[in-house]
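Retro notes, item 3 of 5
We never archived the inputs for the pyridoxal-5'-phosphate complex last cycle. Fixing that now. Sequence and ligand:
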Amino acid sequence: MNVIKQTATEAFDPLRYREDFPLLTRRVHGKPLIYFDNANTAQKPQSVIDAVDRFYRESNANVSRAVHTLGEEATAAYEAARDKLAGFVNASSRDEIVLTSGTTQATNLVAYSYALPRLKPGDEILVTTMEHHANIVPWQLVCERTGAKLSVAPITQRGELIVDEFIARLNPRVKLAAVTHVSNVLGTINPIAELARATRKHGIPLLVDGSQAAPHLPIDVQALGCDFYALTGHKLFGPTGTGALWARHELLESMPPFFGGGEMIKSVSFEKTVFADPPHRFEAGTPNIAGFVGLGAALDYVQSIGRDRICAYERELLDYATAALELVPGLRRFGEAAHKAAVISFLIDGAHAHDLATLLDQEGVAVRSGHHCAHPLMRFYGVPATLRASLAFYNTRDEVDRFVAAITRVRKLLA
Ligand code: PLP
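Structure as it came back at the time:
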């Protein structure tokens, strides 16, 4: 296991990290697995699997309720994940981290607890054309209930947000702006610090969907200057059903609970309930304790490699893969932003995305085909679906070569 933090200058050897991921040794349809579906969910290192296993073997108990040893151990392990998340995004306090089941729960929490009580008819929530449904639908639901509406900042054909158009849409009616840090379809890295400076000038809070950024980029919410930052654990090499919302403490203080139940109260009587302070106010019921123990281990693992190194290696791999795919005849890429994470969406003339993905699976290649929970973006490009290869630091140039060779083979079958 690679627990010693690597220095920035040390050459990045993906093979060294692959050894930590048991699933990557699998064969699929008799071929060595090429896992290029990391934007969908990432594989888990042995240290995460061990942490979850160890928790259930040695410390399983409920959090916060028991004073016995196991209860204290479980609470400490669960709360350690909050500390690690606070460090991971550079929050100024651990109390700014709400543990959620993922980004979807985080955006819904902000929609119902922050936006809903503030919205009135004619108000707006500003999003962009490239958002995932998890950063569209929650806002639509609260807009429908209040008479507010969505305002949408456009993008270029290359898949870059038109920043001037985003800024032009900031006005007193906008009560919240919600933008993805990295597009799950295009890979575009949005200029969040610049957007946050603009929203701040107008007194509009900015929510950032960090689902696709957290596994690939160093995240510093204080430097970004945003107000809410949502992330999901399973794309970050941690267990499913884990995630977090970071929010400025004063915003959390101003928000009523979203769910009610145990764990989120100071006192309850039939006449009146006094809620716990943030972040516990937003964490009703028994959480995914083992999941968060695993997420803590995943954060340790990622930090031990170093996010600057991951980012630099993935950029090189992205350039290599992009150049290799350019040589495939009839291939159309979606997303050519200057600042990109390692996501490549594409189509091949005359072949349906699902047919290609099915044939690639026969070659041992896992890629996603479909609308990627981004219907408005698909509509923008006038296509129903794309194929998406999304890379992680454990992927290699050799896998890219085999992937391109597999595409060339299956393309002939569909011709
Ligand atoms: N936002 C983006 C950009 C995503 O890619 C995803 C997942 O694909 C989500 C939000 C939703 O994440 P989750 O389903 O883990 O809540």
